[in-house]
Amino acid sequence: MHHLARMLPIGDALYIMLTADRVSPEDALRMGLIREILEPDALLPRAVEIAEMIAANAPLAVEGTKFMAQQWRQLQIDESYRVGQWVSRTVLNSEDAKEGPRAFVEKRPPNWTGR
What we know:
Blueprint: H1 2-7, H2 10-19, H3 25-31, H4 40-55, H5 59-74, H6 77-92, H7 95-105
């Protein structure tokens, strides 16, 4: 419940926690609990599509983004800002940060190394 209370507007969180009412797919979408509503046979192809989009990005940038998304929920704003600067510097000073623009200019897919 802790995460629910942090993720949702207080009215939605309290309603779910106090009533234990089922959440419809449409309400889950409205609240931001889910990203989209799919038919069962479309779920796996969509998951693969999203995974491929993520995998096409630089690994350090993906890792840094995931890390910061978790930190923003837990840290005070000033701490979050300092940690965000550190993550940004780490990513921007990486070999992958140079590879992205180089690949763009050369009109080819980037060859990410994770360094």
